[in-house]
Amino acid sequence: GSTIGILGGGQLGRMMAMSAAQLGYKVIGYAPEGDTVAEDVCHDFFANGWGDKPALAAFASKCDVVTWEFENVPVSAVEMIPPQMLAPHPRALEVAQDRLKEKRFVEGLGGTPAPYASVDSDAEYRDAAGRIGAPGILKTCREGYDGKGQWRVATDRDVDSVRFPGRSCVYEGFVDFEAEFSVILVRAKDGEVRFWDSTHNVHHAGMLSTSTLPAPAIVGEQVEEARGLAKKVAEALNYVGVLTLEFFATAKGPVFNEMAPRVHNSGHWTIEGAATSQFENHIRAVCGLPLGDTTTRFASIEMRNIVGAEALTAHEKLADDGEAHLHLYGKSEAREGRKMGHWTRVGQASA
Ligand code: ATP
Ligand code: MG
Ligand code: MG
């Protein structure tokens, strides 16, 4: 096919659409709100609700392949798209949209999440916090991102300062990790799987701040096991496209945090740092093209997110370092805590 539909209008869709354009495809976006950052780079855009069946049908009729950049697209909307046009498989959305389902699914494949309990009332919250203990985190099962929809319980005395938010949650024990990393893979229609190197991911207040290579030694020691699990997840979902699993590297081995059935912020470095970026390989996979090489091309890499008002001075900062690559997503309002763009700095070319 020559027209790709993308569900969701954020920066991931924007970067996906830019790769698709490079490969000669037209992109049509779909998101409930207009004026999205993906729309800027799309050939056409549907600003219609996820429940708007005629609009979804019209969108699908203009596309050859449909994918998503956002894991909270309602499954009911995705089911309006003819299944043979869709990649990845919607089952991946169903699992990844719910933290409880996701943890159970990954546990079923041999993965180890943090100790957790399902919480559907204030009494269940207190019970879970009592059993699992503090420190811990209460997380809504659905719709959280960048640390939103999460409440940290620092000590047993702080249990009362957090309240059940009235939506299904999980309470999980805080993992005493040495480093965080993610496994980002791409799986082709024929089942071939390729991995990018795993960066060291540092978060601030629940939001990714930097992804760097080389990662600490412990990441290298645990990445094979983590990749094994990620591959099993991809196979169990008959996944096509880029899939991400986030992990904590701990003294007891890799602990699974969560998955994202899409390209990922911790993979933005692949645009300059890998032979083929996550965005390009996602497009290649969903279009049934051969996958590109995922090898890292540099000995050191740093991706740093640009958050809030930092974006306002980013163009000036280009003068400080001629080798820094600036990516701005074109968001008009530099609201506090909003991901506005990122910097990528690659070091020496690897031998
Ligand atoms: P994303 O934007 O990655 O989707 P999210 O809102 O889904 O974020 P999580 O990945 O669950 O949030 O948590 C965000 C960050 O908070 C983690 O990367 C980690 O730094 C910290 N965190 C979350 N859960 C735990 C835990 N159980 N133990 C230790 N740290 C945790
Ligand atoms: Mg998440
Ligand atoms: Mg996360």
UniProtKB/TrEMBL annotation:
Assigned keywords, A-Z: ATP-binding, Ligase, Nucleotide-binding, Purine biosynthesis
EC number: 6.3.4.18
Occurrences of domain ATP-grasp (ranges): 103-287
UniProt GO BP: 'de novo' IMP biosynthetic process
Catalytic activity: 5-amino-1-(5-phospho-beta-D-ribosyl)imidazole + hydrogencarbonate + ATP = 5-carboxyamino-1-(5-phospho-D-ribosyl)imidazole + ADP + phosphate + 2 H(+)
Organism superkingdom: Bacteria
Summary of the function given for this chain in its UniProt record: Catalyzes the ATP-dependent conversion of 5-aminoimidazole ribonucleotide (AIR) and HCO(3)(-) to N5-carboxyaminoimidazole ribonucleotide (N5-CAIR).
Protein name: N5-carboxyaminoimidazole ribonucleotide synthase
The species this protein was found in: Altererythrobacter xiamenensis
Organismal lineage: Bacteria, Pseudomonadati, Pseudomonadota, Alphaproteobacteria, Sphingomonadales
